[in-house]
Amino acid sequence: MTVSARNSSGHIGHKVGRVVVPRDRIADRVAELGRQITADYLGRDMTILAVMNGAAVFLADLIRRLSLPMKLETTTARSYRGRSLTPGGLTVADLQPEAFAARHVLVVDDILDTGQTLRAMVDQLAGFAPASTAVCVLLRKHRPALHRPVEAQYVGFDVAEEFVVGYGLDYDDLHRNLPDLCVLDVGAEGRP
Ligand code: IMP
Ligand code: MG
Questions:
Q1: Which of 67, 78, 88, 92 falls 20 to 30 Å from 52 in CA-CA distance?
Q2: Whole-prediction pTM value?
Q3: Whole-number mean pLDDT of the chain?
Q4: Cα 51 to ligand 2 centroid, rounded to whole Å
């Protein structure tokens, strides 16, 4: 059996650099978000709309921190294609109107970058007459030069303008299973 060298984050076999947010800090913050969202949505008919696959890990932890009845819907969005690190064409799956009418909808995603993905979600939802729509993201990327078309009401962490993976976030569909959030190890030629 070949044993790969550990990289600086201690994760064997993953091409990642330093840890940006370790698992225990993520857990503490997700618990805090859960308390805040519970307080805000208690007594309301709540539906979470999770944007897969990136939100999968965050979603699983977050909903177990919500002390209230809620329904769960999932959808898919793809804005990063394969090995590109910059946003590409956006594909959003169609939503079912019945799941959202007259309900308080919280859209959950992994990261708010340009905001194009969440804008598309919020626009689709608007046609289904929800009682309210809000956005929750684990990460919000620092983008000083950008005016985002949508904002998030619940944010786990603000992160620098670098490509992060782990805890659900991927590069080329890899690294989602890392328990910590790490920077991607971009090689000398700009490729991981
Ligand atoms: P936006 O539409 O530009 O806000 O892009 C949001 C989507 O791009 C996220 O849901 C992620 O799937 C992906 N994304 C943006 N930044 C990163 C990153 O640093 N790491 C991994 N995925 C990212
Ligand atoms: Mg995503």
A1: 67
A2: 0.91
A3: 89
A4: 6
